[in-house]
Design brief:
The complex is a heterodimer of chains A (110) and B (629).
Chain A (H helix, E strand, L loop, with lengths): L10 H38 L4 H23 L8 H25 L2
Helix pairs in contact in A: 1-2
Chain B lengths: L9 H10 L3 H29 L10 H35 L8 H20 L15 H4 L6 H29 L12 H32 L14 H34 L6 H14 L15 H13 L1 H15 L8 H24 L1 H7 L3 H31 L5 H27 L16 H31 L38 H7 L14 E3 L5 H18 L14 H21 L5 E3 L1 H6 L7
Antiparallel strand pairs in B: 1-2
Classes of the chains: A mainly alpha (110), B mainly alpha (629).
Amino acid sequence: MATQQSTSANPKVNYKYRRKKAKQEMRQHVTSFALMIFMTLIAFIAVMAGFDKIYVYPILLVLAAMQVVLQLYYFMHMSHKGHGTVALFLYSGVLVAFITVLTFVTIVWW
Amino acid sequence: MSTVAQKKGFLAVLWDYLTTVDHKKIAILYLTSGGFFFLVGGIEAMIIRIQLAVPDNNFVSAGLYNELLTMHGTTMIFLAAMPLLFGFMNAIVPLQIGARDVAFPFLNSLGFWLFFFGGVFLNLSWFLGGAPDAGWTSYASLSIASEGHGIDFYVLGLQISGAGTLISGINFLVTIINMRAPGMTYMRMPLFTWSTFVASALILFAFPPLTVGLFLMMFDRMFGANFFDASMGGNTIIWEHLFWIFGHPEVYILILPAFGIFSEIFATFSRKRLFGYAAMVFATVLIGFLGFMVWAHHMFTVGLGPTANAIFAVATMAIAVPTGVKIFNWMLTMWGGSISFTTPMLYAVAFIPSFTAGGVTGVMLASAAADYQYHDTYFVVAHFHYVIIGGVVLGLLAGTHFYWPKMFGTMLNEFLGKITFWLFLIGFHATFFIQHFLGLMGMPRRIWKFLPGQGLDMPNLISTVGAFFMAVAVIVLLVNIVITQVKNVRVGNDPWGDGRTLEWAIPSPPPFYNFKQLPLVRGLDPYWIEKMEGNTKMTPAEPLSDIHMPNNSFIPFVMSLGLFIAAFGAMYQVSWRASEGESFVWALPVLIIGMLITIGAMAVRSLKDDHGYHIHKEDLLDDEEGGRE
C-alpha cells in the first residue's frame, strides 16, 4: 500500500527512516519465521510422540491459528497502519464462520 | 460519452456499451438486462397464475409448470432483483460519495458481463431441452434425480452469474471504503450508500457458500461425485444448509438497498433530514449481521430437533427489532415534514404497511411450532411475496422513478407513474393477501392444479385477477418510459427540487468524469447544506487539474464469453438419461476452448499494461460550465 511510504520531502530523512524501518521489520520477520518453524516442530513432535488424540487435536489447532496470525501480521503487513477496515472484515468473517461452525457442532448435529 | 455532444451510429454506440467501464453506462446495462429478465420472470408468473386461475386447469402441463415456477423464482431473485439493484448502486453510489468512478472500473464491467452471460445461459435452457425444475432452492434430493440438463443449466448459469455478483460486491466495498470525497466520513454517508455497503459485505460472506454448494452439485451431476447422495454415503441435507446459509443473507442483500432507496426518498420528499440517522445505520448493520444467524428457519421441518429450532426461532424474531427501528424512523421522518406525494414518495409510503405485513407473517413463520402448519403452504408464498414485492420491487419501482432523471436526464411522466403505482399496489395486494388464507386453508405451494369444491376456487381466481393488474401496471410503466424517452425533455441538476445528496449537485446525466473538482463534504446531506446557505454549487475540495480515466476494454466481455462457452462443454460432456445415451464428442473440446478463451483474455489483461488516459485541465475548462480556479 502506498500509505507505508514516508511522505517526507527530504530524501535524506526519508532514507534514514526507511533504513530504520526496514531493519526493524527484518528483525520481526526473522523472529516470527523462527517462531513458526519452532511451532511446526512442536506440531510434528506432538504427533510423532504418539500422545492421545484428544490432546493432539487442540494443540495442532491452536498452533495453526497462531501461525495464521503471525503470517497475517508480520508477513502480510497487517501490523502496519491503514489496515483497520481489512482487519474489521477479516474478524467479522471469522466471527460469522465461527458461529456457523459452532452452531453445526452444537445444536444442528447434536 | 464525449464532452461535446455528437451523433454516433448504432454500431458505434453498441461497441461503446460492449466495452464501457463507466459506472453510469454499466448501470444502464444492468437496468436494461435486469428489466428484461424482470419481464421474462413476470411472464412466467402470469402463466403460473393463469394455470391456477380455475380448478383442474390444463393450461400448461405438470412438467412445464415445475419448470415455470423454478425459473420464475430463480430469474426474479438472481437475474432481475439483484441486477436492478446493482443498476441503481452503480448509477448512484459513486455520485453519492463524490467519486469519479468505482474503485475497479474494469472489474465492474466484468461483473456485469458474467451476470449477463450466466443469465442468458440459464434462460437458454428453455430452448435446449427443458428448464430446471427443482424449485429455485433446487434441493439436492430432488435435483440430483432430475432428468435432462435443466439442473445443469441452473448450476452452471448461477455459478457464472454468482461470480459476477461477488466481483461487483467486492468492488463496491472497496469503492465505499477508499473513494469517498474529502469530508465524507462514514457517518456522513447517505443511507443508500450505507445499505449498499452492508449489502456488499453480505455478498462477500454469503456468496462463497452458494459457490461451494453449486460446485458440489456440479460434481454430483456432471463428474460422478456423491456429495448429496445418501445411498452413496453423502448427505442431502448439506445442500439445504449451504443453500440457506447463502439464501437468507441473500434476501437481505435484496432488501437492504431497497431500504436505502426508500430512506433517500423519505428524506427528500418530506424535506427533512432522515430521522435517527445513526440508529438507521446501526439497524442496517445489525440486520446484516443477524442475517447470518437465522438460516435454519427455512429448515424447521427438516428435523433438526427442538433445541436448534428454538434457538433459530428466537434469533429470527430478533431481526424484527432493528427492522422495527427502521420502520419507525421512516414514519418519524415524515412526521412534521412538508411532504409532497410524488410517484417515488407514493411507493415509499405504500411500502411501509406492505412490508410490515410481510414482516408480521415473518414473525409468525418464525415460531417453529406453528411453522409446521404453515410450512410448504401458500402462507409462505404470501409471506415472501409481501416482503420481496412489498419491499424490494416497490423499492425498485420507486428508485426507477426517483433516479430516472439522474440516469437519463429526462423525467418520467408523473401522471402515468401514479397510474402504474395504483394499479401495481392494488394488484399486488389482491394477488397475495388472499394467498395467506389459501395457505391457512391448506393449499400446498408448488402444486400444478387443485380440485374444485374445496373452497380454493374463488380465492385463486381473485389472485389471478390481481396478477393481471400488476402486469398492466408494468406495461403502463414501459409506455411511460418510451413516451418519456421519445419526447426527450432534458432536465437540470436537481429535477425534484429537494435533492439532498451529492448526486443532485451535478448535471443529469452527469459528465463521464462525474465531478470536475471533487466536492468538499461538510455534513450529512451535503448538497442540502450548501443550498440552505444559498450556494448553488458544492464547494470544491481541490484545484482544477487533470483527471485520470480508465480506457474502455472489450476483455471483460471476452472473459465472460469464454466461461459461457465452457459451460456448454461441461454440461454436454455427460450424457444424461433423458438424452437417450446421446454422446457429444464435441463437448470436451468446447469445454477446453472456452476455458482457453477465458484464460487467454486474463493473460492479455495481465501482460498488457493499460494506464488509461488523462482529461486535460484545458479541456475541462472548455466544458460548458467551467470549473472554479
